[in-house]
């Protein structure tokens, strides 16, 4: 007689398989394991039902009482439930009808060119125990994100060896979706990175493990920048500059520099009369989106690009019908 496979074993096998395919699954992984423990604790031999999943979802760690939180927890189970159907076809898959749809992505703040110029100038003037180094670090960091669309975490995790200034290429390793990619840079960006590297190397010893962007104060000198500190510095500069928020978040964010890069690239292609559809896959690969649909979201989710979407729709409606006479 074959022993019953526990839900925890199914969960572990599922996560191993998905991660081999390149999916990070950090937060969904926690949810899947938590759900597996819950089901094993019920000691039920019945197929999984939506009611079981809903009961688990309501028991979120923070006892939030929020249907939106429960909906997110259920969403993390969908792919796992489809995986389980190969073993038990009667396994149900939760949808949006239980706790309602999860909130839509919020529109970001799209920076004007002048706002980016002002941000870099303000960063350049940051004080430091080592004259000029802290300002150069943050100016170069924010400038690199604005000019390449990197995620903040990707820029902070760059090692000195990942930055090839001879060929103008960044190597981004094991990013959000456990994939690596190479990012070409504009010559003007390469020049700025070279200036920063030369200034930085006057104060630290460089090895294969040296981060490209380094802390500049006391024991932090030469070590990787702390993400929380970077965001604190940005918020201070943002408040100093007094920008008017044009996004749906609490205020402009560093991550909005990435959004701005994508939006400005699409607008440039439109202005040049290029076929945006033909370019979207390349843009999606460049910025490290897991699916090209994440890049297409900008056409409908960003006010500045709604005209592009409208133009595409208009051209589609003008295609002559084919006669079948």
Number of H- or I-type helical stretches: 14
Molecular shape: globular
Tell me the span between the first and last alpha carbons: 65 Å
Work out the oligomeric state of the chains in this entry: single chain
Q: Unreliable runs, pLDDT <50, ≥5 residues? A: none
CATH topology of the largest domain: hpI Integrase, Chain A
Task: Give the radius of gyration.
Answer: 24 Å
Largest sheet entry: 3 strands, antiparallel
Question: What is the CATH architecture descriptor of the largest domain?
Answer: Orthogonal Bundle
Task: Name the beta content range.
Answer: under 5%
- How would you state the average pLDDT, rounded? 87
Q: Please report the first level of CATH classification, the CATH class of the largest domain.
A: Mainly Alpha
SSE succession = HHHHHHHHEEEHHHHHH
Structural domain tally: 3
Category from helices, strands and their pairing: mainly alpha
Annotation, overall tally of beta strands: 3
Helical content class: 40-55%
Strand order of the biggest β-sheet = 1-2-3
- Looking at CATH, the homologous superfamily of the largest domain is Intergrase catalytic core
List the helices and strands and how they pair.
Layout: H1 7-20, H2 26-42, H3 50-57, H4 67-75, H5 78-84, H6 113-124, H7 133-148, H8 152-156, E1 163-164, E2 169-172, E3 181-184, H9 187-200, H10 227-241, H11 255-271, H12 276-287, H13 292-301, H14 306-317
Antiparallel strand pairs: 1-2, 2-3
Helix pairs in contact: 1-2, 6-7, 6-10, 7-9, 7-11, 11-12, 12-13, 13-14
Write structural notes for this entry.
- The protein has helices at residues 7-20, 26-42, 50-57, 67-75, 78-84, 113-124, 133-148, 152-156, 187-200, 227-241, 255-271, 276-287, 292-301, 306-317; strands at 163-164, 169-172, 181-184.
- The protein has a 3-stranded antiparallel sheet with strand order 1-2-3.
- It has 3 domains: 7-84; 113-241, hpI Integrase, Chain A (Orthogonal Bundle); 255-317.
- It is mainly alpha-helical.
- The radius of gyration is 24 Å and the shape is globular.
């Amino acid at each position: 007689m074959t022993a019953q496979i526990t839900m925890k074993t199914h969960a572990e096998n599922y996560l191993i398989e998905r991660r081999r395919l390149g999916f990070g699954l950090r937060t969904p992984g926690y949810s899947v394991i938590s759900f597996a423990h819950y089901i094993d604790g019920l000691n039920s031999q019945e197929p999984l039902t939506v009611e079981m999943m809903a009961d688990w979802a309501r028991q979120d760690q923070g006892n939030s009482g929020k249907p939106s939180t429960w909906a997110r927890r259920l969403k993390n189970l969908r792919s796992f439930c489809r995986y389980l159907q190969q073993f038990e076809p009667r396994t149900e898959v939760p949808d949006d009808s239980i706790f309602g749809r999860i909130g839509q992505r919020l529109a970001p703040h799209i920076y004007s060119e002048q706002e980016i110029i002002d941000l870099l100038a303000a960063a350049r003037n940051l004080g430091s125990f080592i004259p000029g180094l802290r300002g150069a670090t943050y100016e170069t960091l924010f400038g690199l994100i604005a000019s390449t669309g990197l995620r903040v975490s990707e820029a902070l995790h760059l090692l000195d060896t990942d930055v090839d200034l001879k060929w103008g290429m960044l190597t981004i390793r094991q990013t959000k979706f456990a994939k690596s990619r190479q990012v070409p840079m504009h010559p003007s960006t390469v020049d700025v990175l070279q200036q920063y590297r030369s200034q930085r190397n006057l104060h630290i010893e460089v090895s294969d493990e040296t981060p490209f962007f380094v802390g500049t104060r006391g024991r932090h000198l030469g070590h990787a920048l702390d993400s929380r500190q970077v965001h604190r510095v940005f918020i201070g500069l943002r408040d100093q500059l007094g920008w008017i928020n044009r996004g749906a978040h609490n205020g402009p964010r560093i991550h909005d520099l990435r959004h701005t890069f994508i939006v400005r690239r699409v607008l440039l292609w439109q202005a040049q009369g290029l076929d945006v559809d033909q370019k979207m896959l390349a843009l999606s690969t460049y910025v490290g989106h897991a699916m090209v649909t994440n890049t297409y979201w900008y056409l409908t989710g960003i006010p500045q690009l709604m005209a592009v979407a409208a133009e595409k729709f208009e051209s589609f409606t003008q295609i002559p019908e084919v006669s079948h006479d």
